[in-house]
Structure of FAD-binding oxidoreductase:
Amino acid sequence: MTELISRLQNAVGAAHVLDAVEDQAPYLRDWLGKYHGTALAVVRPGSTAEVAAVMAACAAARVAVVPQGGHTSLSGGATPDASGQAIVLSLSRMNRIRKIDPIGQTVVVDAGAVLAKVQDAARDAGLLFPLSLGSEGSCTVGGNLAANAGGVAVLRYGVMRELTLGLEVVLPDGRIWDGLRALRKDNTGYALRDLFIGSEGTLGIITGAVLKLFAQPTARATAFVAVADAAAALKLLRLSRSHCGDRLTAFEFLTSATLDMILRQIPDTRLPFDALPSAAVLIELSDISDEPTLAARLETTLADAMAEGLVSDAVVAQDGTQAKAFWRVRESVSEALVREGKALKHDIAVPVAEIADFVKVMDAAVDAALPGIRPMVFGHLGDGNLHYNLMRPLAMTEDAFYGHGPRITRLVHDEITRRRGSISAEHGIGQLRMSEMPLCKPPLELELMQQLKRTLDPHGLMNPGKLLPNV
Amino acid sequence: MTELISRLQNAVGAAHVLDAVEDQAPYLRDWLGKYHGTALAVVRPGSTAEVAAVMAACAAARVAVVPQGGHTSLSGGATPDASGQAIVLSLSRMNRIRKIDPIGQTVVVDAGAVLAKVQDAARDAGLLFPLSLGSEGSCTVGGNLAANAGGVAVLRYGVMRELTLGLEVVLPDGRIWDGLRALRKDNTGYALRDLFIGSEGTLGIITGAVLKLFAQPTARATAFVAVADAAAALKLLRLSRSHCGDRLTAFEFLTSATLDMILRQIPDTRLPFDALPSAAVLIELSDISDEPTLAARLETTLADAMAEGLVSDAVVAQDGTQAKAFWRVRESVSEALVREGKALKHDIAVPVAEIADFVKVMDAAVDAALPGIRPMVFGHLGDGNLHYNLMRPLAMTEDAFYGHGPRITRLVHDEITRRRGSISAEHGIGQLRMSEMPLCKPPLELELMQQLKRTLDPHGLMNPGKLLPNV
C-alpha cells in the first residue's frame, strides 16, 4: 500500500493525496449524514491525465476506487464503505468550463464543474443549460451524468442523458476513452456514451462531457393551481399540453399534507389561496415571446380547465417576485421534510397515465398497513415521477416507525414493480437500493447488467457495493 | 440443416419458412439493388414468442441470423451475405400497434410496424409521432431503432433514440428481454435500451418498442430562403433559433447545383425565386398557435435576417399548397439523384458550427483531387448533418469516375475524422462502411465495441458482416 500511495503522490502531487483522517472527513460522509465510510486515501487529480495515472496505479494494485463529485447523492452513491480498502477519487479540482460554442449550442466541461457554474456559463453566452435541481449549487456535472439527473425541467428538456452529446471517460485500467464529440447525429456503432451515463461510477470515471445548450426563454408565466387530487392534476396536465405544447416547462404536484408541512416549517412561505387546497400544481410556461402573451395563454388554459371542473382556484403570478414566491414553496419541501422529522422516502415513477391511480391505491394500502401513517407526496407529475414520502403516525415514535420501514417500503416498491414502474426515478440505486435490485428487476436484466459490468470492469474495482449486487 | 428447417417450420408454421428461391428473392436484394445475397431460409415469425423460438433454434444450430424490417437500409444493413449460411428473419408479419396511451403520450408497437402506420395511429389519437424520413411508407420501427433513424424533424424532436422509452428484445440465445417500460425517468442500472438502439441488429432482435408521442402542432409556417452559402445559412440558423426557439422544426439546406438538378430532373418542381440562388434553406416552424401569428413570426425573423445581409430573397408560403410545393423540392432530391446518374454518397456530420467551413474546404479539396467533380450537397444543416454527394465531372464516364471513388471517399472521410465528425450521421454502417470503421474510430473505442459484441453475442451469430469488423 505504501507503494500505491507513493505512486498516487507522484501522479497528482503529495498535497492532493489526503491520508490524514481530519482531511479526509468531508469525503467520507454524505451531506445528509446517512452514509459514512473510510478510505485508504482521498485523491484529487487535477486533469484527465492525472485521473488516468491514478486509475492505472489502482488497477495494478487491485485497489477499488470510489468516484466522487459534489457528494450530494441521495442514495449513498459516492460514499465509500467501511472496509477502508478503497480510495476516494474526487473530481472537485477538475472544475473548468473548457469551451462554449454559441453557434453549435454546446458546452464542453470538466466532470467536476458544479452544475450552477455550467448554468451560469450558458447564461453568459445568451443560452440555457436547462438541468435544474435542488443541489445545483453543489452537485457536479460528473455526478449528474453518473446518476442521470432529472429535476424540475425534465418535462420539456429531458433528463441528463438527453442533454449530453459526448463523454470523456477513464476506464478502470487507466486508459482514456475520448468520446468528446459534439455531434447531434452519429450512427457509427454502439452507444458507449449511454452505457456510462447512469452507471453510477461502476464502469469508469467520467472526466468530461459535451452538453447541449438551448435558446434562452425570454418570457415565463407561473401559476399556482388548486386541484382536488392527482387525478384532476393529470387531466389538467393533458389539457395544458394540448393548449401549450412545448411551452409547458414544469408541472409540479404537491398534496395538501405536504403544503401544510411547508407552511408550518418554513417561515415566509404562503399560498395564494384562501384556504389550504386538497392538492396543488405549480405550472410554469416559458417561451421566446413576451410575458403578457404567455400569461394570457396560461390564463386561457386555466379558464378552460376551470370550465371543465378540473381546477377549483388558480393564481397566475403577476410579476417575477410573485413567481419566485410560488417556487419558494416548491423548493422548500426538502428543508421542510428535514425539519418535520424522519421520512421513509420513495423516488418512484410509473407510466404518467397511472400516477393518480398509484397514489390513491398506495395511500389506502400504507394506511391499512400502518394506520395514521402520513403520506407527504410531491414531485414531477408530468414525468410520472413522485417523491412518495411517508412520515410516522403522530402517535408513534420515530424509532418505532422506522422499525416498520422495510415492510412499508416493500409494500410501495412491490406496487411499483407490479405497474412496471421504477423504484428510483432520479436518485439512482447507490447503496440505498442495491439489495432491492433483484426484487424489482427481471433476472435476465440483472444478468445482462452483471455481464456488462464484468466486461468493462473485470476486477470489480469501480465503486464496489453500489448499484449491482453480487458481481 | 434439415433438422433446423423443420424446427423453424414447427416454430412459425411451414408457410412462413420460405426456402424456394423465387419466394426468397425480395428478401435477398436491397431496394436500391446495390446489395444482394443468399440465405438458408427466410423466416417470418408472427409473434415475439415465435421470434424467440427461431433464435433458440438458430443458436442451437450455430446458424447466423440477419434481421430484416422494411429492407430500406442505405448501407446494406439488412441484406444477407453471399455465403447462403444465414437465415433472414423478417419482422414484416409483426406489424401491430399494440397500445396507444393519449394521457401518457406513448405508443407500444411491434417492431415490424411501418413508420407511416405509427404516424397515422398517433394522428388518429390527436398526437404526433415526429420521426419523418423519405422511406416512411416502407421502413419499419424496428429498422428505425436498429439504425437510430434521423430525418427532417430531428432539430426539434431528436433522433429515434430520443423518441424511445422502452424495448422488447430477443437475445441471440432466444431469451426475451422485456424492457417495454413506458417510463419518462428510470435510474435503476445500465441503459440496456440504448445499447440495442443503433446496434444494427448485431446484438439481438428488437421485437417491440414504447415510443414517445407529442402534442400535434396546430399551425405551420414554411419559407424558402435564398442565401449566399452554407456560412450564411449557419448565421440564419442561429438567428432563427434565437427568434423562434423550439418552434424551429426543420432547417434544410440545398446548394445551387442540387436545386438545379432537382428542377431539371423532376417535373413540376419550381422555386419561388426569380433566379436560381447560390444556395437555399427550407425553414419550417410549427406551434400550437394560429397560422397568421406563426407566419408573422417567420416573416419578422426573415426581415431581420435580410437586414443583417444573411438572406437575399425569401418567400413565406401563403397556404398549405405552396408549403407542399416547397417541400416537394426538398423531397425530390433522392429521386433526382437516381435520375441524374451515380453518385458517391457521404452521410456526414460535424459539429454544427463547423458545417460551413467543412463544405468550403471539402469542395476545394475534391475539386483539386478530381477537377470538374460536381458536389450535390443538401441536408439537415441544423443538425450539422449533410448528404455530401459527389457526381462525375461531365467530361468523365461513370465507370472512370467510380474508379476514383475509394480515393475520393477517403479524402472526405479523413477530413471528417480530423474534425471529430461522423462518417455515418443517420444511415448506419452496415456493409457499406464496415471496413472504414478502423480508419475513423480510435482503436480503444473499437475494442470496447468488440468486447460488448462478444459479451452479448458470444457465438457471433447476429447479422454477421455488418457494423463491426473482425469480431
